[in-house]
Amino acid sequence: MENLLYSLPFRLFGIFLLMGWSLLLGWKARSPDSRPRLSGRSILGLSFVLFIGIRLLYAPDREQNVDTSTWIATALTVGKAENPLSTLLNYSDGRPLAVLPLAIAELVGIPLDYRLTDFMGVLLWCLTLWLFWRILKKYLAEETAVVLVWLPILIISTVFNHDFASYNTEIMGNLWLITGLFWILNLSLRSMGSVLALGFWLGCLPFVKFQTVPMGLVLGLFTAWKLYRTRRFTSVPVLVGAALLPVLLLTLYYFSQNDLESFWGDYFSNYFVYSYTTQYSALSTGDRFSPVRIVRYLFHSQQLTLFWVGVFGGGLLGVWHLVRRPVFRSTDQMERLWLGTVWLVASFYAALQAGNNYTHYLLFLVFPGLFLLAVLYEIQGVATNWKWIGISLGLVVVQASVNGFFRKPLPIHPGEPLFQAVSAEIKQRSQPDDGLVVWGYVDRLYVYTRRPMGYRASDTFWVYYPTSTQPFRMKEFLADMERNKPLLFVDAMTPRISMFADDAFEFENFPAIKTYIDRQYQLVKTIEDVRIFERKKKERNKL
């Protein structure tokens, strides 16, 4: 099947299909009353069918990105837990709401693999894009709004930069943000209850992904401004209080568990160190936000270059046209123009602040860029905006065509035979509910074996990597090992299969951990340079 999918005739067929559909969308945006007589809703629905079909065809049942393995491991651990809520809160790397859809699937008995997880990600994309289309069509023609939604579909359908396309926390982060924006712009905020609910929704963003907080603050400030402008002064403190409520509730929960230290360490301290220090990236603050780095970051993947040119180039063209030929702008248009601008700046800040050029961070730039483009199209009016849409669409179609032509299958990891051998040994020596801990950064072993995590992280990177949070992480690791008493401890600290492998990170170099493993576990199998330890029988009898 893979040979057929990546054969030149099939790839060309896919390119012509996407080009043909793109031409139809552009034609309908130019002449909405022309044939075929399809509504904007119908065209969008067919676009989603095409999107889902292409992604299903090309979704491999292999790890596209290590983060996907992390979230599957978390979800299956929640699905096997005696207390799913506590496990979701503690075993999700501080992002329980990002993992929630996958955890629900496991809880209702749907075992996740990579292909199914990718499919769930595509469905979440469709929901996000549908809400975004609902926002845009309030200000633009339905057909024009469909074209803007089609631009990211084109790229996500054809990109084979798997860090950008695979299931990751940015998918739920964008869904949460777009739902909040839809709520703000499309629904009434007249009742105090709706203000309370919106504030609570935005306040949940840190538990989707901490990186979404700057964008959430922008949406919250925009909501407060709208309430202030309509003289609903008493609703503003309600909005603020509701936004703080999720943090307060989780604080009370962890206080009741006598575990506030974990709440602070897992949800906040670690991400502060990650984002605002040089412990995980040597770039200074100035270098992180320098124009040179921004350009390099945007264009370091050749599979995305023309997409960003189409979106941001179209936006710059719109700004230039607006300055050159000023037109009347209503108060609502000016509000949305400022909202789009500040939202985009906040998204750039969120993507750049950690100093790491991970491609999936760029997903946060998609929607503010398109929203700002839509506002500029709206201000200029129908007479000129179709030309800009044609330019943006044309550039993205070219990029998608290039991606489709050069699309290649996901390479098999060189260590795959070792992955399989270790996984087979783990499954032979344990039962489906027996806990597993892997020393190293090899999250896919949880997915291959479908064994739950015995430590609250699917890898031990945070434990062995030298940062200011290491003492806390080491204490947490030993506490989890003693509490959960996982049956197997696998030392996979080898560059053949583990990311960031280094001799300095071997568990024997950490006396407290070595002492615990020596006392509680015995070596039962060595497969090449991977060691499998099993909990001693006398220790298991104490369970």
From TrEMBL:
Membrane spanning residue stretches: 6-26, 38-58, 119-135, 147-164, 236-255, 305-323, 335-352, 358-376
Print the keywords alphabetically.
Membrane, Transmembrane, Transmembrane helix
What's the protein called, per UniProt?
A: Glycosyltransferase RgtA/B/C/D-like domain-containing protein
Protein's organism: Larkinella punicea
Q: What is the lineage of its organism?
A: Bacteria, Pseudomonadati, Bacteroidota, Cytophagia, Cytophagales
